[in-house]
Amino acid sequence: MPIGGRKQPPTAVELEHATVTSPLSGREWELPGMWNRMFEQRVEWDFTTEGFEKIGSLEGGESLEWCYGCGKCVPVCPVDLVGEYGPRKIHRKVQTGLDLFTSDDLWLCTTCMNCLRVCPKEVDMVKVMPAVREVAVAEGQVPGELADVFEKTFRYGNALGENPRRRHAWTRDAGVDVRVLASDPRPVDVLFYVEDYWSYHPRGMQAARSFARVATALGVDFAILGPEEKTIGDSQRLAGEKGLFEALMEDVVATLDRYEFQRIVTPDPHGFNALVKEYPKRGHRYDVLHYTQLLAPLVDRIEWRKELDCTVTFHDPCYLGRHNGEYDAPRTLLRAIPGVRLVEMGRCRENGYCCGGGGGGMWLDGLTANHTSERLSERRVREAVESGADVLAVCCPYEVSRFEDGAKSTGNDQLQVRDIIELVDEAMGGGGG
Ligand code: SF4
Ligand code: SF4
Questions:
Q1: Are residues 215 and 125 in the same domain?
Q2: Distance between CA 313 and CA 357 in Å, rounded?
Q3: Protein residue whose Cα sits closest to atom 7 of ligand 2
Q4: Which pLDDT value is given to residue 65?
Q5: 29-43, 213-227, 329-343, 410-424: which range is least confident on average?
Q6: Same domain, 242 and 318
Q7: Cβ atoms 129, 101 nearer than 8 A
Q8: What is the rounded end-to-end Cα distance, in angstroms, of the chain?
Q9: 36 and 52 part of one domain
Q10: How many CB atoms lie within 10 A of CB 27?
Q11: I need a surface site. Which of 91, 219, 294, 412 has the fewest CB within 10 A?
């Protein structure tokens, strides 16, 4: 009520407990203090705008301050499931003084995009985090394990620091001829962009050999760049090394310009993502397919020779599924394999759980371990086991090693981790990796 002609603010009364009586039933209810606090005015002047001003001034950083705290992002954030994370929590921390540029929180986001999927305000951590990381990288504030990968990528053109001349060493034991364009530059239908982990990681090399056998059996005209191939480096970009990514893009495009091909096919959803979304921004347009998209329409032509008899669950790679909308091609292949019973995990398709490898997470296990109760990959392995599967099928080169480690460390060695192409190859009578 106005007193003396001036409106008075209500007096905030906060009780730790209050008893209210229902006017209908006369029943009494005990309310804890949190119900009373809504009558207290928020202390807005405790908040600082400094952090948001700094982040919001970056290209891509604008949306963090749009958060209005609805909390929808937190339960879908894979990192929050094993720790304390999510855009709402990051927003609140920045609001109350966190310097995100120097905080470990900057490196925990895997850019999986599950928060953006549900956020009414379109707070886009897939842009915010790389923008802030780019500044941190320029200022030398990079976790050592990640700096090491940047250095290897810069020097050798691959994240593993392997000799570029050994890029096509995997072809030797493939059992089929794999054409290398440098030595046989005739036009080709499919330029198979192998990427780092299928080129160099022992389990990836097995999958690459499987792909070569399957593609050959299906009459796909394909060839590789071999020693001329460099990583596309999308995860390095998302981890903050945009300059390195752009330098790699120049090299990749210059190499691709030397050859005539119809389509690029890659097993790597991260490379796929950059070719589809980042390269066109610089005017480089290609017809790009993930390998499952190349093979899914060809399943009717496959001659199966073996029944596998296993229960399989499939882990959607964030950068094939949520980022690029492909959920069906991998499942089409799995369903076509004789003897495969496909079961889904609770978190699948649009709400698929992240393996922890995206956005540079592949190389940040040490840092992440300090902030999480278990690895994301370990969590996912337990979900796969709970689904009743014998086999966890994947189609991203990061995942085989992550999940195999997770299966061991969680005591689930009985769970096999196989790339879909290995299962297809085995059922076609090949080595299966
Ligand atoms: S869903 Fe969006 S608006 Fe809601 S709390 Fe999360 S970031 Fe903020
Ligand atoms: S992108 Fe994924 S990991 Fe990052 S904050 Fe959003 S839900 Fe969490």
A1: no
A2: 19
A3: 77
A4: 94
A5: 29-43
A6: no
A7: no
A8: 79
A9: no
A10: 8
A11: 219
If you take atom 8 of ligand 1, which residue's CA is the nearest one?
67
| CATH code of the domain in which 386 resides | 3.40.50.10700
pLDDT class of 4 with cuts at 50, 70, 90: low
96-106 pLDDT tens trace: 999 999 999 99
Ligand 2 atom closest to the CA of 87, numbered from 1: 5
Per-residue pLDDT tens over the stretch 136-154: 999 999 999 999 999 999 9
Please give the single-letter amino acid code of residue 341: R
Place of tokens 């210059």: 254
Q: Give the mean pLDDT of 27-54.
A: 73
Task: DSSP letter for 416, please.
Answer: E
The answer to whether residue 144 is domain-embedded is: no
* Structural domains in the chain (count): 4
Full-prediction pTM beyond 0.85? yes
Closest by CA to 326, choosing from 284, 386, 400, 266, is 266
Pocket mutation for ligand 1, best pick of 91, 114, 126 (most atoms within 8 Å of C-beta):
91
Give the CATH number, domain containing residue 259. 3.40.50
The whole-angstrom separation of Cα 255 and Cα 100 is: 38
71 within ligand 1 shell (Cβ under 6 A): yes
Q: Is the CB of 123 under 6 A from ligand 1?
A: yes
| Mutation choice for ligand 1 from 114, 115, 123, CB with most ligand atoms inside 8 A | 123
Ligand 2 centroid – CA 359 distance (Å)? 10
Q: Is residue 146 part of a domain?
A: no
Q: Are residues 134 and 256 in the same domain?
A: no
Ligand that comes closest to the CA of residue 108: 2
Q: How far apart are CA 124 and CA 136, in angstroms?
A: 19
Same structural domain, 88 and 106: yes
Ligand nearest to the CA of 122: 1
52 with 37, same domain: the answer is: no
Residue 31 and residue 1 share a domain? yes
User: Which ligand has its closest atom nearest to the C-alpha of 77?
Assistant: 2
